[in-house]
């Protein structure tokens, strides 16, 4: 990949304008999950160690192009100081005289946090004037927010084309992991795609059938494919109007030499509730008054065998209703198998997406995967084979 990292930049005495993602959960004046903040520590530490002055910019919530005190980044200063271990100054703007004066006054060894970029309507419109004003606040641009790289915004794409630009450590790790998973992977490659709807992941499925050797389909999405094969799915969540599309995907996969793996047995219940009475049935024997809530043990064994043959795994989406025990069994078992193979050095495993991360955390295996992406939409668009503007700008 032809993008630069912090190692390629002269940072001593330079103002390093850093696009980060501080869009963290925040309730009652407290950051309730500081994962995104903690993952910025390597970049911040390296910039400070090299004698650079970090100037942070980020969005926070959806203020719709106008200032909103409830969405001010100033509220995050205590959490940032705790994570970074140095003073964090704040300025109530991300452009103009006040921001420029704050940057000029920033002492060595400290950090400056700019106000929410989305307080300006031009941010999401990638306004060139706003990007130019932002660019005046730095000598070097560092994008460490892969999670926003799928958006061509002023702070993610516009500024990158106006300053010497590089990827931060988090962005670097994301790009290297993704390249290892789909760009230049060790084969065979298996992808796990779960979730509720085929319609939201059409481009993803279409891209993966041409890139991977095995495609495991789970969750509600699998129900649509089972229906497309003429199997009874009872009252299960499914997109029955998408069965023709599902059959097309199955045919495209056959043509491309990609083996699609669907459930061969099912865990079904009459109620969508934790610990609902349930039974395991063959994939063609779902009762008319029952719903499919998980894949069965034979399917788990099939998936585990596929993982054993693979060398690279990409995971997006759970196998079943993982939020409702015991219908988390297939997801947990498959995740544990992937983790065990990864720890044994037999598998490169990359996962991403909100439900995916939650499911892997619940299974207690996140730390054992090769890489867990902190991105949601960007990870999905990358899996779909799309060009991410924030990444493309770093390669200009």
Domain count, please report it.
Answer: 2
The largest β sheet comes out as: 6 strands, parallel
Name of the CATH first level of the largest domain: Alpha Beta
Name of the CATH homologous superfamily of the largest domain: Phosphoglycerate kinase, N-terminal domain
Inertia-based shape: elongated
| Topology, number of strands | 17
Q: Enumerate how many helices there are, as a single number.
A: 15
SS-based class: alpha/beta
Evaluate the radius of gyration: 23 Å
Task: Tell me roughly what share of residues is in helical segments.
Answer: 25-40%
Strand percentage = 15-25%
Distance between the termini: 12 Å
CATH topology of the largest domain: Rossmann fold
Write down the overall mean pLDDT. Answer: 94
- Spans of at least 5 consecutive residues whose pLDDT stays below 50 are none
Known CATH architecture of the largest domain:
3-Layer(aba) Sandwich
Strand order of the largest sheet: 5-6-4-1-7-8
Overview of this protein structure:
With 396 residues, the chain is of the alpha/beta class. It folds into 2 domains: 6-168, Rossmann fold (3-Layer(aba) Sandwich), CATH 3.40.50; 185-383, 3-Layer(aba) Sandwich (Rossmann fold). The chain has 15 helices and 17 strands. A 6-stranded parallel β-sheet has the order 5-6-4-1-7-8, sandwiched between helices. Helix 12 crosses helix 13 (354-363). The longest helix has 15 residues, at 169-183. It is elongated, with a radius of gyration of 23 Å. It starts with 14 loop residues before the first strand and ends with a helix. 52% of the residues are buried.
